[in-house]
Amino acid sequence: MKIKFCGAARVVTGSSHLVELDNGFKILLDCGLYQGGDKEMADFNRNWYFEPSEIDVMILSHAHIDHSGRVPKLYKDGFRQNIHCTHATKSLCAIMLRDSAKIQQSDAAYATKLAKRRDKSARKVEPLYESQHAYAVMNQFVGHGYDKWFRINKEVEVMFKDSGHILGSASVTLRIRENGDTKILAFTGDIGRPNRPILRDPQPMPEADYVICESTYGNRLHEEAPAESDRFLKIIQEACVEKRGKLIIPAFSVGRTQEIVYMLDRMETEELLPPIDVYVDSPLAVNATVVFGTHPECYDEDLHDYLLIDDNPFGFNKLKYINSVEESKQLNKSKKPCIIISAAGMMNAGRIQHHLYNNIESPKNTILVVGYCSPYTVGGDIIAGKKAVRLFGEYKQVLANVEIMDSFSAHGDRDEMREFLANQRKRCRNLFLVHGEYESQKKFAEKLEKDGFRDVDIPELGQTHILGWD
Questions:
Q1: Are 236 and 148 within 8 A, CB to CB?
Q2: ∠ CA 415-419-420, rounded to 5°
Q3: Helix axes 325-333 and 352-359, enclosed angle (nearest 10)
Q4: Residue 69: which domain range?
Q5: Do 235 and 203 share a structural domain?
Q6: CA-CA distance, 9 to 48, in Å (whole number)?
């Protein structure tokens, strides 16, 4: 058996790993978009490290676009087999992949316009895929519950365990019988955090012989959660009440937005939230919030208890969800203090760029960063403290106040990931670190080796590892 690392190798985003059994059966774990501006990765999303039509089955850990975003292209390029995931992941992909297709088409049209402006004979830029591919590939999805083995062929069974990262997220465990022996291969997907709102805590995977593990925050610890709500409320008070400005929160449409809204809802219920308007300006977030409401099987006990006093944890009087472009534009014309939650979380696309463009040069306003931002993105530049960022071809001075609360992150930090992996130390022969920046991965590998893991590897993109079977 061998593993080929086809994405998210020494970078964050673009998750994709190919497992090939000795009999040639090919299992693809995730098929995500690379999101970032690294020139070395410029052609990644258009190319494959395998032949799509030869994949026998795909297993999807969760719906985030850096894990699912190339699935329609996989279909477009010849893949026609089943895609196994949790029920909630299937529901989210139904809206997220359509949204991604629209973005691909819009980006291609814009790139064509720029190319034609430079050279009238320039060829049309083709999108990675179109809406028709996003619709068609949903017929390949097969939903499953957590904690039950299901069979994908005679040799392989699969189990999903709740990873507590976003709605429907799962670790993937493969029980593989080959050459008269049975071995366990586990893929963490993205590891969530314990004691976070809405979702259950991450559940440990069955003990495995080989583990593919994410490492986004492999060299960092998050700030403590108990003070999180107090600090969030203080930032709101300073930004919107004292400075009479806008608090702009770039947030992923799925997961982060709902968590922030839920926290604001609880503040409103407890009469702590100042009387200011709150806007969720992301059509995808609006649709995703509806999906959240249809999957209570993913909720933690606290949210189930809260539902007894508030039957809508994602809505309150001062909150408005925005769909139309015109309403979004009006927010930038308004001078009233408010909170604007908008996508994309890394600030590399979407309506958030318009809000930054119109508000980043005013010291009255505040930008609150609540999650990981890859290098080479606008969010990465802002976190790095750059004095100006490029938006719509112009450099804008960063004069707004910038606050960072990485406790909102849906990714486990270094010690939370170590705790998640604790039950793997005795059996695991080989642990592969993916989905992380290389310098962070090296530090994380050192910690894991001190924890007792034997072989900890950091594979390069396109690298293949042959797994010993005896």
A1: no
A2: 115
A3: 20
A4: 2-220+410-466
A5: no
A6: 14
Taking 50 as the pLDDT cut, the residues of the chain under it are: none
User: Do residues 307 and 430 both lie within one domain?
Assistant: no
**What is the spatial distance between Cα 336 and Cα 240, in angstroms, rounded to a whole number?**
9
The pTM (predicted TM-score) of the whole model is: 0.91
From 385, 408, 431, the end of a domain falls on: 408
First to last CA, the chain: 12
Same domain, 432 and 450: yes
pLDDT tens digits for range 13-66: 999 999 999 999 999 999 999 988 788 898 999 999 999 999 999 999 999 999
Report the phi/psi class of residue 198: left, alpha or beta, with left for phi > 0 and alpha for psi in -120 to 50.
left
Tell me: do 215 and 287 sit in the same domain: no
Query: Nearest Cα to 160, choosing from 331, 151, 152, 149?
Result: 149
Closest Cα to residue 13, out of 27, 26, 31?
31
* Single-letter amino acid, residue 350: G
Residues 318 and 438 both lie in one domain: no
Handedness of CA 68, 70, 71, 74 (dihedral sign): negative
Residue 155 and residue 295: Cα distance in Å, rounded? Answer: 32
Print burial letters for 174-208: b (CB count within 10 Å at least 16), e (below 16).
Answer: bbbeeeeeebbbbbbbbbbbeebbbbbebbebeeb
User: What is the reported pLDDT for 409?
Assistant: 83
Domain co-membership, 215 together with 278:
no
The β-bridge relationship of strands 338-342 and 246-250 is parallel
Among 408, 424, 454, the domain boundary falls at 408
CATH number at residue 10: 3.60.15.10
- In the numeric block, which tokens belong to residue 387? 């004095």
The residue written with tokens 């996989």 in the block is 74
d(CA 157, CA 154): 8
CA 30/CA 214 separation, integer angstroms: 12
Instruction: Give the separation between CA 284 and CA 92, rounded to whole angstroms.
Output: 10
- Where residue 323 sits, what CATH number does that domain have? 3.40.50.10890
